[in-house]
Write a structure and sequence with these properties.
Layout: H1 39-42, E1 46-47, E2 58-59, H2 72-82, E3 85-91, E4 97-106, E5 112-115, E6 128-137, E7 141-152, H3 157-171, E8 180-191, E9 198-202, H4 203-208, H5 218-228, H6 230-240, E10 246-247, E11 249-256, E12 259-265, E13 270-277, H7 285-303, E14 318-322
Parallel strand pairs: 2-9
Antiparallel strand pairs: 1-10, 3-4, 3-6, 4-5, 5-8, 6-7, 7-8, 8-9, 11-12, 12-13, 13-14
Helix pairs in contact: 5-6, 6-7
Organism: Lactuca virosa
Protein name: DUF2470 domain-containing protein
Domain DUF2470: 219-291
């Protein structure tokens, strides 16, 4: 089944000012309600609305309106900084396409630096090339970007020295001058997952974008929450999402400075993806944990009717799969 584009409400307003005092409960990573809820409540199936949007393929600029998700340019920069292996593709001398696995580093502008070893003699004089890089997120999603550009060898000694320093920092070894190549970025295709539509990013938007500030801690945070706080993730779906469909399981996929993605599983084995924004942008791991704690407290109070709904719920999800039973 083909996936559908994601449609979201505006970011949640500040929800951390409930009319009742906030309890002094433990942080989300050891979060427990102020009293154990009845077993009958825990056995009630959660429900989550499903509203599917039509497919779209479009060119998107980094200078877009405010969003609750990082731009494709930012996502691409994050992928490139968290990865070191990709698939380099170009045209061989016999005009057949040729792809090889390579290691790469990136400079401060996100320009890929590759060492092609002795395999580069198979390539034609046409320097048009691409580098596909994939980033697996929590074993649930593989986001990727493909950089198209022109391949060349650096001839400036100062630039070459900087490149070799970057390579040594990335891999702990020296790069051979003969094999160092630079892939000048012309444009980038970013995809959220396999079989999904991609978004083209211009070279200028890509170069001006920054990687997400949570990139180095995102995987660890998601693992902690999925391991120790599944009850909170399910409660997020119940409280922050407009609901009319049963949800049997929920797993967090990824977290960034603007919010987090969750996969929802229905009893019919359908899989949906939902984006829940933070009440405000975070800049580091400490801020992300603080936001999670506040949202967990609010969700718990709403569920217990201690706190009224003072925010607009997320109403639309993206159906991404129908699993074989």
């Amino acid at each position: 089944m083909l996936p559908h584009t994601q449609s979201m409400t505006s970011p949640l307003p500040s929800i951390f000012s409930p009319k009742l005092p906030i309890s002094h409960s433990k942080p989300i990573f050891n979060y427990k309600p102020r009293f154990d809820p009845p077993k009958s409540l825990l056995l009630q199936p959660l429900r989550c609305s499903v509203s599917l949007a039509p497919e779209q393929t479009h060119l998107q600029s980094n200078a877009t309106t405010k969003s609750n998700k990082p731009s494709p340019a930012e996502i691409s920069r994050t992928i490139m900084e968290l990865s070191s292996v990709g698939t380099f593709s170009t045209t061989a001398q016999d005009n057949w396409p040729l792809a090889v696995g390579v290691r790469f580093a990136v400079d401060p502008e996100g320009t890929p630096i590759v060492c092609l070893s002795a395999s580069h003699h198979h390539f034609a004089n046409d320097k048009r090339s691409s580098l596909n890089v994939q980033l697996e997120q929590s074993g649930l999603r593989t986001t990727q970007c493909t950089i198209q550009g022109s391949l060349h060898r650096p001839d400036d000694e100062i630039l070459l020295k900087k490149i070799k320093s970057l390579w040594a920092k990335r891999f702990g070894e020296k790069a051979d001058n003969e094999f160092i190549h630079i892939l000048d970025v012309q444009r980038v295709l970013q995809m959220d997952n396999f079989m999904e539509d991609g978004v083209w990013v211009s070279s200028s938007d890509y170069g001006l974008a920054n990687a997400d500030p949570l990139k180095d801690s995102a995987e660890r945070l998601v693992h902690e929450i999925n391991t120790n706080n599944m009850e909170d993730v399910l409660r997020f779906c119940n409280v922050f999402v407009d609901s009319d469909v049963q949800v049997s399981e929920a797993k967090m996929v990824w977290v960034d400075r603007l919010g987090f993605d969750i996969h929802l599983y229905s009893p019919q084995n359908d899989v949906f993806e939902i984006r829940i924004p933070f009440p405000r942008e975070v800049t580091d791991e400490k801020g992300a944990k603080s936001s999670f704690n506040g949202m967990s407290q609010t969700a718990w109070e709403v569920e217990k009717n201690y706190h009224t709904l003072e925010f607009e719920k997320v109403k639309q999800l993206k159906k991404i799969a129908s699993k074989v039973q």
